[in-house]
C-alpha cells in the first residue's frame, strides 16, 4: 500500500504537469447564444473619441484634488450627461491603518426598460501601475455620452469610479446590496441612486493618457472565484472582429511561437500565474470583488509596452470594444450560466475544464488516505505472536485469531488539539489590536512562533520522558522476571519469550505512528475538501506537503530527525513567509502586513487557512518527527 | 330592500329596470340631452431634463344615468345600442357586472424625482388591472376570471396569467374612483347607501409584460375616429415605442355630472402617456409636434365634442423670455395657481384652429440657445424607492425607502404584494426614521393588514396605513427566505429570476409645484366644456377651505419592479442524464438485438466463382 500511494503521487504530479499541454486544453467558445458578441453596430464615433479626449483632460485636471472634491467634480460631469449621479463616502479602519475615500457613481436608465437588471462599468482612481487611471475614467464618461444617445438598451448601465484600491468598490458593492455597516471599523454611506440586479460587470484599467499595445484580461477573484468563461470569450471574439486588438491574459505578453516546448512552457507559466493568484486568494483587480455577489466580472487592462510589435491602439478602439462588449452583455436574457465557472486558462483562447484538472488533486488526496490506512493497520498488527504451542520440545509461535494490539490515541489527539488551539491563538493574536506600545504584526508573529516552539518542545520532551519511564518500568519488570527464572528451573528460553510477548501486549503502537496517521488523514480531508472550493490552494498545499508528510518519520539517528524537522519548518507558514519575502525581495514584515490587510479588507482565506488548518498540521508533523521511535 | 336603495349604480339592465319602479319625490334638474359624447385632448409639457411629456386622453361618456328619482328611461338603452361607446368594452362590462375597470399597460419607469407626477394615475411597469365587481350574485371569482381572459383576448396581452396566485384584494388602496370621485359630494345620503351594495375589488399586476404595437392596435380600435382623424392621428407606433416611458390605459367608471350627483354617466377614458427624449441626439431641448410624432393633425375628429391641445409651459425661474411657443395660442396664455405653483397653460382648440386653414396643425417650442438657462426645480411630495438587500440564493431582504418632502405630515397607504415563493418573516419588520431605528412603530404605522402567502395559491399582501412625518425619510426592512421551487415550476428562462411587482403608495398630497396636472384624469374635464361650471364652482366654493389647508390630490406613487433569483438547479443535468441513459440503452439494445437476430453463417469457399450471383441472391432475399 505505501508503494501504491507513492505511485499515485507520481501520477498526480505528472498529470498536473500535463495540464498546460496543448492536447489537454480545448479552444474556448461562446456558449451562451444570447450574447452574440460583436454583432451590433458600434455607435462610438470620432466625435465620441474627441469627447473622450476632452474628458481625459478634465480627469487629469481633477485627479490630484482631494478625494471629496474630485468625486464631486466627476459627479457633475456625469450629471451634465443627463445621468443620475451621486457620491458615496466610506471609512475603513483595519488593525493597522485607516482608509477613507469617496466613490462616484452614475446610472444610465435604459429607456422603456423596467430597470430590473443592470450592468456595471467601473474604474478605480488608481490603476494597477499605481498611477492615475485617467483613460479609463475618461472612457466611462465618453461611453455614458454614447449610451445616452441609444434607445436599444434593455439593462441599466451603472458607472462606478471608486476611490482607493479595492476598498472603495467594496464599500460601494456592500451598500448597493443593502449591507452597509455603520460601525467604527467600517462605515459606508447608503446609496441614493440604485438600479436592478447587476448581471455582469467590466472593470477598466487604462492607466495614463497614452496608447496601448495590447489588452490584458484579469479574471481571478477573491479566494479563487472565477467569472463565467463567456465573459472572457465575449471580449475574445470582439477583439478579433469589430475592434481588433491583441489580447492576452494578465499583463504578460508572450510572442507567438511554433515551438512545442516553448509553447508548453508559456502555457505552464500562464497557468501557474493564475494558480498563484487563486491560491493566495487575492483578486487581480477590482473585478474580483463582484464575484462574491454572483456578478460575473473581469478587468480589462491596457498594456503599454513600447517596442512590442503589435499595432498600438487608442481610446477610439477601446471605446468601440467596450461599447460592443456592453451591447453584447445587454443581449443577455438570463444571468450568465451557460459556460464554465471552473477552469484553468493556459492561454486567452485555451481552457482546461474541471473534469480534467480535478483528478490529480483527488488522486493526491487518495494517496494520503492510503498511507494513513496502511499506518493504521500497522499500528494494530502484532509484531510478535501471542501464544506458543508446545510440540514436543519445540514451541511454535502462533498468532491468536482476531487479536489486535490496542491503539493509544491520547497522545496523538491531544497533540493535534493543542496544535489547533495554538493556530487559533495565533490567528486571534494577529488580527486583534491590543493598543500596546510598539505593537506590530511581525512582533505578534514572533510571539506566536515562540508559543509554537514552546508547544513543540514541551510535547516532545514529555513524550521522551514518558517513554523513558515506560522503558525503565519494563526493564525493572524484566529483571525481576529473569531473577525469578534463575531462581526457578527449566526452560529459561520459553518463559523469556512469553514474557516478551506479554510486554508487547502491554505497549501499544508507538505514539508517532498514531500521530502520523492522524496527520495524513486530516491532510487528505483538507486537500480534497478544499479542491472543491479553491482548486489552486488545494493543489499548492497538497504538492507542498505530500512528500514530507508521507515520507518523514522519527529516526534512530537524531540528525535525520532534526533535518526532517528543519524541512518541515521551512514549509511552515513563517518559513514560507520568509521564502516569499526573499523571492520578492521584500521585508518579511511587509509580506505579513500584506496578508493581514488582504484578510481584513477583502476577507481572503489565506490567513485563516494558514492559522487554522495548515500550521496546526505542520506543528503536529514537527512534533511527530521528533517523537521517540519506539 | 334592493329597490329602495336609491343610489345604486348598477350596470346590469335588469337591476336598472327594478330600480326604475321606485319613485318618491320629484325635483327639477337638468337632463343631459346628449346621451353620448366624445372628447379628445393632448397635453404636452417640456420636462426639466429635456424630455417632453405627452398625454393623450380620449373620453367617451355614455348615458345620463339618473338616480331613481329622475330616471327618464333613456339609460335603459345603455349597452343595447352603441354609437360612440365601444361595444367590445360595453359587453365586457355588462356580462361580467363590472362597475369600475382600470387597465394600464406601461413600459419604462416614471422618474418621479425628475418629472413630478403624471396625469395618468398608474405608472407601474408592466400591466396593472383592477376592477370593482358587483358581488350581488356572489360570482366575483368567475367574473374576475372571465374578465381577465376576455381582456387578454381583446388587448393581445397575457392578462389571463392574472390568476389566484397573483390576484389580491387590497383593503386600503385602490378605492372606488367612480361615485366617490372628487366631484361627488361625499356626505349625501345617496353615497352612504352605496356602501350597502356588495362590491368586491380585484387587483392584479404582471410586472414583466412587454407592451408593444399589438396592444396599441386594439386600443386604437376603441376610439370612434380610430387613428384616422383628430389627435389620435399622431399615434405612430415607431415613435411612441422609441420613448423613455410609454403607458397606455383604459379606465371605465361612473361619474357624477352635477353637484349633488343626481345625474351620472359612465365614462370611458383612454390615455396614452409617452415621454420623448428630445435632447437625446444633439442635446437640443427644442421640439415640434411633427418632430415628436412624425405625423400631423390635419383635422379634428368630427365625432368629438371637444378637441384640444394643451401645452403646460415650462416653469422658468427668474430669467424671462427663455423660450418661444409657435404659434402663439389664439386665446392667449392663462395661468393656474400662483407664486411658486404658478403654471402657465396654452390651449389650442383644434375645432377652431383647423377649419380655417388647409395646412396641418403645427406646434413647436424653441429655447433661446436651444437649452433652458434656468428652470424651477421639481420637488415631488413623496418619492419611494424599494430594493432587495443581501445576496445569494438562500435568503434576502426587502427595503423600502419613502421620502416625504412636504413640510407637513402626510397620511399614506403602502401596498406591497409579494409572490408566495418569498417567505416573508414579519417579525423582522423594522422601521427607521431618518436613519434611526424606531421603538414606537405605532406613531408611524397606524394600521397594518397582512395576508400571509399560501404556497402555490395566493401571494402575501402587506398593506400599511402610514403617517409620514414632515421632511423625513422612512425606511422599512423585512427579511425573507427564498423557496426552493419544484423543477417544473421554473420558467423556461430559469436563470433570469422572477419579477416581483411594484409597491404602490397612495397619498393625499398637497399641490406642490412639479405636478403636471391637478386631480389626475379629472383635471382635463375643464377643457371638455362638460361641467366646467361645476368644476369651477366647486373650486371657488372650496376656496375658503383651500386658504386654510391647501388643496390636495390623491396620488399613487409606484416603485420599480424587482428581480429575485431563486435557487436554480442546473437544468443541463437532467438533459445530460437523459442523453446518457438513452445512449446506453440504445447501445445495449442495439448490440443485444444484433446478437439475437443476426445469423452467422460460414461462407463456403467453393462458391467463389459464383460470388456475384450469390450476393445478388442475398439481396433478392432481403428485398423479399
From TrEMBL, chain A:
Signal peptide from the UniProt entry: 1-25
Name of a matching Pfam family: Gaa1
TM annotation in the entry: 356-378, 411-430, 442-463, 533-552, 559-585, 605-627
Gene Ontology CC: one annotated term: GPI-anchor transamidase complex
Domain of life: Eukaryota
GO BP annotations listed: attachment of GPI anchor to protein
InterPro entries xrefs: Gaa1
Keywords: Membrane, Signal, Transmembrane, Transmembrane helix
Gene3D superfamilies for the chain: Zn peptidases
Protein name (record): Gaa1-like protein
Lineage per the UniProt record: Eukaryota, Fungi, Fungi incertae sedis, Mucoromycota, Mortierellomycotina
Automatic annotation (TrEMBL), chain B:
Domain of life of the organism encoding this protein: Eukaryota
Keyword Aminoacyl-tRNA synthetase: no
Protein name as it appears in the record: Gpi16 subunit, GPI transamidase component
Origin species: Linnemannia elongata AG-77
Transmembrane segments: 575-596
Key words of the record: Membrane, Signal, Transmembrane, Transmembrane helix
One Gene Ontology term from the biological process aspect of the record: attachment of GPI anchor to protein
Start and end residues of each stretch annotated as Disordered: 605-624
